DNA sequence: TCTCAGGCACTAT
DNA sequence: ATAGTGCCTGAG
C-alpha cells in the first residue's frame, strides 16, 4: 500500500489503488468551490461516490484511492473527468492575456463530474450563501439525514437521498440552518423521489432543454441550473453567473461598465464559445484567489 | 445595528 | 422581458 495512504487501515471491506491523472490538481479541483460535501484532512479528501465512501490523495501525476469495496477505479476516473481533453480545452480558452494568466494560475483545476442529485441538492442550499456557509450547511444536512458509511476507522456521511429529504418535514431541514431554502430542497426532493423530475433523463438533451427541465424545480433558477449542468452533466457551455463572475467580467472586459446578466451570458457564449464553463471556473478562481488588482 | 454573502420567487409594470 | 423586494442565517 502506498505511503500516501499511511495510517489508513485496509480490511476486507475496503481496497486501495491508484489512477494516473496527468494535468490534474486534486487540491485545486476540490477546493475551488465547485463541489461541497467532501472533507479535507492532511491533503486527503474524503466523500462518497455511488453510495460508497472514498478517500483520495494526490501523489504527483497519480491519484491514490482508498475506497469501500465495490467502488471501482473507472467510477472514480469518471468523477475526476479524466476522459476530458484538458489541454485542448485550456488552449481553446487561453484567448487573451487575462485568460492565459488565469489558466497558468490554476493549472490542473478541472471540472469534476459530480453526481446529479448531491450536486443539485447542494446548489439549492447554496443560494445567497457564501462558500464556507454552504460547506457547513451541506455537512449539517448530511449528518442529520444522510446515510452513514464506514471506511477504515472513520465514518462518512453521504448527501441525503431524495427520499430522505422528501419524507422529512421542512422543519428538519430548517433545523440544519438552511432557512428559506428548506422548503425548496424539501419540495425538489419530493419531485425527484416521485419521478416527477427525472435527472437521469437530462443527459443527452440539448443544453437549453436540460436547463428548462432543471428550472422547473423549486429553488432552481438560472444560476443554479447552470451550476448543475456544468458540474454534474458536463455541459461545458454552461456559464453560471454569480456576483463574482459578474464583477470580474465587467471589470476585465467592459472597463467596469455594469451589465445585465443576460448580456454577460451573450458575451460569454460569443467570446469563449463551447468551453465557456471552463473559462468561468478560471475567471472565478482568479478573481477570488488572486484578485483583480 | 447594519451590510453582505456565489439567488430565487413573487409581484407589478 | 424587466425591475424591485423579501427572505434564513452567520460573519465582520
General description of the model:
The protein has helices at residues 26-31, 73-80, 86-93, 97-105, 116-124, 131-145, 162-167, 170-174, 182-193, 207-215, 222-231, 243-253, 261-272, 276-289, and strands at residues 14-20, 39-41, 44-49, 52-59, 62-68, 148-151, 154-157. Strand 6 and strand 7 form a beta hairpin. The chain is built from 14 helices and seven strands. The termini are far apart. It has a five-stranded antiparallel sheet. A two-stranded antiparallel ribbon has the order 6-7. With 293 residues, the chain is an alpha+beta fold. The chain folds into three domains: 3-82, TATA-Binding Protein; 116-230, Endonuclease III, domain 1 (Orthogonal Bundle); 243-289, no CATH class. It binds a DNA duplex (13 and 12 nucleotides) through helix 6, helix 11 and helix 12.
Amino acid at each position: 500500500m502506498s505511503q500516501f495512504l499511511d495510517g489508513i487501515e485496509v480490511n476486507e471491506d475496503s481496497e486501495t489503488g491508484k489512477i494516473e491523472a496527468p494535468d490534474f490538481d486534486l487540491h485545486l479541483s476540490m477546493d475551488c468551490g465547485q463541489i461541497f460535501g467532501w472533507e479535507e484532512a492532511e491533503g486527503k479528501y474524503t466523500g462518497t461516490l455511488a453510495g460508497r465512501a472514498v478517500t483520495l490523495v494526490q501523489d504527483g501525476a497519480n491519484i491514490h484511492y482508498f475506497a469501500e469495496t465495490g467502488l471501482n477505479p473507472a467510477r472514480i476516473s469518471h468523477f475526476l473527468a479524466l476522459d476530458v481533453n484538458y489541454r485542448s480545452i485550456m488552449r481553446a480558452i487561453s484567448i487573451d492575456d487575462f485568460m492565459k494568466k488565469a489558466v497558468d494560475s490554476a493549472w490542473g483545476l478541472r471540472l469534476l463530474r459530480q453526481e446529479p442529485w448531491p450536486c443539485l441538492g447542494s446548489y439549492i442550499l447554496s443560494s445567497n450563501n457564501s462558500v464556507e456557509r454552504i460547506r457547513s450547511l451541506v455537512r449539517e444536512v448530511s449528518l442529520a439525514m444522510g446515510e452513514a458509511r464506514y471506511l477504515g476507522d472513520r465514518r462518512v456521511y453521504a448527501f441525503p437521498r431524495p427520499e430522505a429529504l422528501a419524507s422529512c418535514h421542512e422543519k428538519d431541514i430548517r433545523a440544519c440552518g438552511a432557512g428559506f431554502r428548506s422548503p425548496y430542497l424539501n419540495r425538489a426532493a419530493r419531485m425527484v423521489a416521485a419521478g416527477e423530475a427525472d435527472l437521469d433523463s437530462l443527459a443527452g438533451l440539448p443544453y437549453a432543454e436540460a436547463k428548462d427541465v432543471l428550472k422547473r424545480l423549486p429553488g432552481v433558477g438560472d444560476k443554479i441550473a447552470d451550476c448543475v449542468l456544468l458540474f454534474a452533466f458536463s455541459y461545458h457551455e454552461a456559464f453560471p453567473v454569480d456576483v463574482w463572475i459578474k464583477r470580474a467580467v465587467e471589470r476585465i472586459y467592459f472597463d467596469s461598465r455594469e451589465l445585465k446578466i443576460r448580456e454577460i451570458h451573450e458575451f460569454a457564449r460569443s467570446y469563449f464559445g463551447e468551453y465557456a464553463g471552463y473559462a468561468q471556473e478560471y475567471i472565478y478562481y482568479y478573481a477570488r484567489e488572486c484578485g483583480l488588482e
